[in-house]
Amino acid sequence: MKKLLVVGLMMSELAFGQVKKDTLEKEYKLEIAPADQVEKKQKPNPLSKKGQVFVFYGWNRGAFSNSDIHFTGNGYDFQLNNVSAQDRPTKFGIVYFDPSWFTVTQYNFRIGYFIKDNLALVLGIDHMKYVMDQNQTVNFKGHISDPEYAAMVQNGQVNLADEKFLTFEHTDGLNYENLGLEKYKNLIHKKNIDLVWSYGAGIGFMFPKSNVKLFGNERSDRFHVAGMGTDIRSSLNLVFWKNWMLRVEGKAGYINMWDIKTTLNNKPDKARQDFVFGQVLAGIGYTFNTKKYK
User: Fold this and answer.
1) Per residue in 108-121, is it b (16+ CB within 10 Å) or e — as a string?
2) Which of 83, 233, 283, 288 is the most exposed place for a label (fewest CB within 10 A)?
3) Using alpha carbons only, how large is the chain's radius of gyration in Å?
4) Full-model pTM
5) DSSP-assigned letters across all residues of 122-152
6) DSSP letter (8 states) at residue 75
7) Which of 56, 60, 92, 87 is nearest to 250 (CA)?
8) pLDDT, tens digit, 9 for 90 and up, residues 109-126
């Protein structure tokens, strides 16, 4: 009987030990995954992931629709209809690369932050230049009390060629300070090259330094908030070595300025105009991650 009891105890201990061993092996297998199955954190593609940032600097060419410009002040209230204007690009040279002269050119600056994957909030400055064509005759509607300048209106038209009646520019410049949302999509992904397409829209305020000389008054030449602007935009971004990028962007928008200063002093003289604009810009930028990836 004693022998049977001893044999039974030995068999039960052996069985219990085997069960315990099997349980430990199962738990170990559950806790320790094979090395080749461990998820690795890959560095994301540029211009694609929440938390990424980019900065950009470039130059533009602009085009503007004809516009009606309405002038009001002491002794006059009139409108010039269908006025044409052009941009004024600086001749290519060292001025495009000298930081002390960067405001002379028609430049663009951007800083973007990806608030979601493939979606960036972008703060931008578009320094365009708007110059009224001087060699044009435009239709006139309204009145001028000064007989000298009233006499320049002939048959409901006024010739602007001699600059005595008016010179009108936003050349320091037609500054569009804007905030936009841009959606990004990777088109090509290679080892050291990415091609990324973006599209979006923006809105902002106009902060021009308008150079206006009306009726021989001292020229108005000061920065001021003159109105609002809005735009749609699309760009192609070639990213190389993961960080550096070349950008080409097209943009179209609408500008409405209802408070353009036309005299240097604090008189209530002002002008207003609205027009559609188009812009093509190109330049270089840098993009980086704000998170570390293994």
Assistant:
1) bbbebebeeebebe
2) 288
3) 34
4) 0.81
5) EEEEEEEEEEE-SS-EEEEEEEE--HHHHTT
6) T
7) 60
8) 999 999 999 999 999 999
